Amino acid sequence: MDNEMYFIKWITEAFKQENRETALAAALEKIKTLGSRPEYAEGYQQFQVFMSLVNNHIKKNGHKALSENIIRALMIELATDTFDGDDQQKKNMLDIIQSNPDWQNEYQTLSTQIQQLQKPFESLKISVLRNDQSVGTVSLTQQDNIQTVGHLIPGFYKLMLSTGRLLWEGALDEQDLLWAKAHAGQPFKMAADSGQAKAKPVKTIPILEGELQLNIFAGVETGSLEIKLKG
Amino acid sequence: MYHALSLLRLSELIAWQSDKKALDEFHTCRFVFYRNGRPNLFVDFLNGLRQDPGYHNPDYWGQGILEPAYDLTIGKFSNLSRPPKSDDPVKTEGPDCRYYFGAFLNHVKRKFPDCHNNSSVKMELKIAKILQNFVIRHFYLSCLECARRQQGLSRRYLWKVEGRSIPVWMPSYMAAKQCRDWLKSHIDNHMTQKEHIQAMVDRHLQRHVVMSLSQIETDVADSTKGDFYDDTETVSFTDDLATAVANEKAENIGFQRPAIQALGPDKLKDLVCRIFESIAGGNLKAQPLAKEFGLSDAAMSRFASTRWSRVPNLRFSNVPDLWSNTAQVLATNPDFSAAAGRAGVLTTISQIIESNVS
């Protein structure tokens, strides 16, 4: 035997695997890939006829379980917004789902559930840590784009996004946080509300190509840190 | 260095460079999933879905599905297998997370084709949201897959009684004859409601089932008209393909050509298994095999020729009996149908759906 029935070999082997669906998917890809080679041309033609036969049997049997499985998978893809088709395909799929009241209800339940899970992603939360201990958290939005964390004493600081990503780390010492060290000889002008000097930051650090700006202010006994979300 | 990498960059390292440290960073330090207002690591988020899937279809999955679905989804985002070689057989050691992270990256690329600053914090949140949706998607898809696997513990048996055909889910360990005998001795012939029959089967045989009765096809008898298996009993299979086809042929030997009928069921089973084994080994020699089983070359050719497409006006009737039956057996297997549908070798998904909706 040459390669005329090569596809049977791959399909049979896939059925022996524990993770059958994954193995079958890999086998079918393999069959398609090999089919493009001249030595497999005849075998691939036979595979296509063979698959037409499979398709005919599925249609003839009105394979309801399959279609329900596919509909459910599509609902999941649409509700999670991970469907890869274009807008027209998406609309067609939604029309099909809405053509059946049970599917429509199921889709609605699923969509609501997923939307609820998504809510907290709307704001940007950043934690400020000193020597790996949290000293404050700020929440930034486009409207409320500047937040301050005060009462900072020298130490090793980190700014962490709520997702766990490190945005910035570095040491802040007395030169950065204490007025007498940062602005030796200059009179201290106290801001009415915070007890911190607001005039001029000791340091300005751009983060992520300037998307965030970190301003360090010195105070009499402690300093503060201002995080600004730009644009 | 990994702590400062964006979620997208971490995913790229995992998918394209099989970077284990990036995968560790993702699993141990990245709270990119939200549940009940709190950031979660992947495993905690998934555990939450397992305990309270929210989207819950009692017909479709229960605890027996959620546990294996949880394990399967963990694997989809954690298993970093060795890189495959081009000549590898299709053996799989479970899912490979590179494919799943790769699919996620492709989706992000399609979603934000013009974005040049994927490391920004605003993008980080958008991307985290997409990843969360991907994980939810794969958890639910795992539920579907596990439901299909559990369905594999049952076989669909078409019970012919009093001129009617009633589809019933039976335990997969029972052969067709055993199914027929059991139903004959336990079910009143006048019982017409398939739901009642199914309930009796489930109660007496403790069949493992996750399929709802509504999923049993209602008109299999009508829909199979015109098939040469019209009057036979059909089953979906859970064994390996060769055994399933061999059993099918042996159980329906009365519908075979005379030369094949003459073999008898046991010899026919043996022949089918031998043909599959030979194909797997790449050494099918039809003539010696025909001689061994006492078949003429012509009978063997009609039964299991390996070259049948080079005829003018090729039609389905040109397909040798064994391969035609193999196609029919495969059509009953949901794993195969789903994989073929997704691989685009069957027909497009929408075509299947449309044909079922209309």
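Chain A touches chain B through 94 residues (CB under 8 Å).
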